[in-house]
Every structure is written in structure tokens, then in C-alpha cells.
């Protein structure tokens, strides 16, 4: 099974594509979609839409895992992230990809074993689990890979069909 993990954002959308087979992960690709701060919001969203569709068309993921929104203090930033997240969900839906969503705490629990783990711990574990030569940059990319790992570990019985492939 090919899993596309997404850490949504307006400035940076982290993405990571993993193959998950027989309980093991293999990195197929990862990176980020970045939009400049000076660009109009609708142009930034259009860039995310176009670039994300290109990623989907290149990797043909079976499933998509997206981080749920976590609001802190800045509601305006949260709304912009929600808009970008909506673009990501729309792309997945249009391509017929099964979409699952995970909270930051679920991702940390699945990857590190502790739901309140520090970002550095998540990055270290992602690098180790995927046997990467260096920690993925930017951090949003490492988060996207962590979300994909979480999905592989948390998929439960519906993933059983993929264990023998």
C-alpha cells in the first residue's frame, strides 16, 4: 500500500509518500510545497492545488493521511491553514483516495510512543524508522512522514488486505 502523509499549511505543505508492506515502511519520496508570504491567498491555494495534484499523479497513493487542525492563539492563521487543508482534502477526494485524519497527539503516540513528545523526538524517530540518511527538511516534511507512519501503524484491520502484498 502507498500512503501519502500530509502536514497542511498555507506557507508550507509537508508531504511524504511511503510504501507500507508486511509491517515495514519504505520512503518513496518527500518534500514540501512552499508559497511565498507576499502572494495573494487565492494564488497560494491555486499553487497548492496544482502542485499537490502533480504529487498524487506521480505517486498514485492508495490512501492519504492528513493531520487534523490544531488551533493555538492566532485564529487568522488557523483559518488560512484550514483553507489550505481544504484544498488538500479536495484533491484527495477528486482522485478517489481514501482519506484518514489524525491529531498531533495520535501521530506522536504512533511514532514515538508518547503523545506529548517533542518535535525533535518525532524527527529522530521518523529518520530512524525510514532509515533516512538525514532528518527530512523542513520540519513540515518530517511531520508529513510521521503522519504516514501513524496511518500505517493505526490502520487496523482495514489494512490487513495489504499485509500479503
Task: Describe the structure in your own words.
This protein is an alpha/beta fold and 165 residues long. It has a single domain (2-162), classed as Ribonuclease H-like superfamily/Ribonuclease H (Nucleotidyltransferase, domain 5), CATH 3.30.420.10. It has helices spanning 41-59, 75-94, 104-112, 119-129, 139-154, and strands at 2-7, 12-21, 24-34, 63-67, 98-102. A five-stranded mixed β-sheet has the order 3-2-1-4-5. α2 (75-94) links the parallel β4 (63-67) and β5 (98-102). The radius of gyration is 15 Å and the shape is globular. The protein starts with a strand and ends in an 11-residue tail after the last helix.
pLDDT below 50 for ≥5 consecutive residues: which ranges?
Answer: 156-165
Beta-strand fraction estimate: 15-25%
CATH superfamily: Ribonuclease H-like superfamily/Ribonuclease H
Element-level helix/strand string = EEEHEHEHHH
Total beta strand runs: 5
Indicate the CATH class: Alpha Beta
Number of domains: 1
CATH topology: Nucleotidyltransferase, domain 5
Mean pLDDT: 90
Number of H- or I-type helical stretches: 5
- State the shape: globular
CATH architecture: 2-Layer Sandwich
Strand order of the largest sheet: 3-2-1-4-5
Classify the oligomer.
single chain
Q: Main β-sheet: number of strands, strand sense, barrel status?
A: 5 strands, mixed
Intertermini distance:
8 Å
Structure classification: alpha/beta
Radius of gyration: 15 Å
Give the helix proportion (percent range).
40-55%
Amino acid at each position: 500500500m502507498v500512503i501519502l502523509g500530509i502536514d497542511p499549511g498555507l506557507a508550507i505543505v509537508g508531504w511524504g509518500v511511503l510504501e507500507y508492506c508486511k509491517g515495514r515502511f519504505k520512503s518513496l519520496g518527500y518534500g514540501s510545497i512552499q508559497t511565498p508570504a507576499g502572494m495573494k491567498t487565492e494564488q497560494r491555494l491555486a499553487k497548492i492545488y496544482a502542485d499537490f495534484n502533480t504529487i498524487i499523479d506521480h505517486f498514485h497513493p492508495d490512501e492519504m493521511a492528513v493531520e487534523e487542525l490544531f488551533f493555538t492563539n492566532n485564529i487568522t492563521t488557523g483559518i488560512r491553514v484550514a483553507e489550505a487543508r481544504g484544498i488538500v482534502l479536495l484533491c484527495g477526494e477528486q482522485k478517489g483516495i481514501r482519506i484518514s485524519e489524525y491529531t498531533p497527539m495520535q501521530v506522536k503516540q504512533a511514532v514515538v510512543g508518547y503523545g506529548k513528545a517533542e518535535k525533535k523526538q518525532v524527527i529522530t524517530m521518523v529518520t530512524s524508522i525510514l532509515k533516512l540518511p538525514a532528518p527530512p527538511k523542513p520540519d513540515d516534511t518530517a511531520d508529513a512522514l510521521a503522519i504516514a507512519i501513524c496511518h500505517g501503524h493505526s490502520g487496523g484491520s482495514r489494512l490487513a488486505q495489504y499485509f500479503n502484498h
